[in-house]
Specification:
This protein is an alpha+beta fold. It has six helices and seven strands.
Length: 322
């Protein structure tokens, strides 16, 4: 149970929701120590006020992340329909006008991209050119097809804007989660350091009453046992902008949610990045962007969880940010 976890390394060992429970437990315990001679009165009162901004940011992130996932599905469905319609038009255009000039004029002489952002450029070119030539007699046989296309294109533009607006908001909310958690972590580490200086024996019974526990190892969160069903069969990472890495993953058979942890070159422990991304379709290739990264090599660990929260086999991917 998360509310029973004791650990001396909460930043690396606990994901956000468990960390929130753990830090609240620590604040409650600190409240029982006010009258004790070793109570850090210069540090402890600063901890509790840092928690509500973290909890609020976490709630906001969860809401926006769910909304972004839903809008991404809408965006993808409209993209598929629009691409199919433009492909039909592309194959039909040479029957009413000269090929290849007519395809180039519509901006679709190259293969239609399966990347949504690249495809948008092609679809916009076709839509804009149709607005210019739609009244020409030679294109009369395609008026109905272009009518469907322009309607889908309008929906595509709206879906694209809705998704990226929400996605960017969710990324900002993620940054807020990490920033507010970092402030808590800094204060908590100072408090832990204060007590460790006064109780140097990590196996001493005194530590058993705290949420840090002893150094005997018995109270640390147990290492997960991976079940037989597979985790991500495919995962990749690439830098797509300055300080921005895009992870893609698919094939999470049996997984319902995904956790992503990140290890920066030179660091000893992974840090959590995202809290249980929903996995509705094991065949769909899904993206996740991680931003504001230093110029370092990173290893990402993608761990799926089943419907009751059991972890599956993690996938590891590496990327160097330059």
């Amino acid at each position: 149970m998360a509310n029973e976890i004791k650990t001396r390394d909460p930043q690396a060992k606990l994901y956000h929701k468990d960390y929130l429970t753990w830090i609240n437990n620590t604040v409650v315990w600190l409240g029982t120590q006010v009258a004790e001679p070793d109570y850090p009165a210069h540090l402890a009162p600063d901890l509790a006020p840092l928690i509500p901004p973290f909890a609020a940011a976490l709630d906001s992130w969860h809401v926006l992340n769910e909304l972004a996932i839903g809008r991404n599905e809408i965006f993808t469905n409209i993209f598929d329909a629009l691409r199919d319609q433009l492909q039909l038009i592309k194959e039909s255009l040479p029957t009413v006008a000269d090929e290849p000039p007519v395809l180039a004029e519509f901006g679709i002489d190259a293969a239609l991209s399966r990347d949504r952002d690249e495809f948008y450029i092609q679809a916009k070119a076709a839509n804009d050119h149709w607005a210019v030539v739609s009244a020409e007699p030679q294109f009369a046989p395609l008026v109905a097809d272009f009518g469907i296309f322009t309607g889908l294109y309008a929906d595509f533009v709206v879906a694209k804007e809705n998704y990226y607006t929400t996605f960017n908001a969710s990324q900002q909310a993620q940054n807020d989660v990490l920033t507010t958690r970092a402030a808590i972590h800094e204060c908590e580490r100072e408090i832990f350091g204060w007590y460790r200086a006064r109780h140097k024996n990590g196996t001493d019974e005194w530590w058993t009453a705290t949420w840090w526990g002893t150094t005997s190892g018995g109270e640390e969160p147990p290492a997960p046992e991976w079940p037989d069903w597979p985790g991500p069969v495919e995962a990749s990472a690439e830098q797509i902008d300055e300080g921005l890495v895009r992870l893609t993953y698919s094939g999470l058979n049996g997984g319902k949610t995904l956790r992503i942890d990140r290890l920066k070159q030179g660091d000893a422990d992974y840090v959590p990045v995202t809290d249980g991304l929903p996995l509705d379709d094991p065949e769909e290739v899904m993206p996740f962007d991680d931003n504001h990264l230093d110029k370092k090599k990173y290893t990402y660990k993608l761990t799926p969880f089943d419907e009751v929260g059991n972890p599956g086999t993690p996938a590891l991917v590496e990327v160097t940010v330059s």
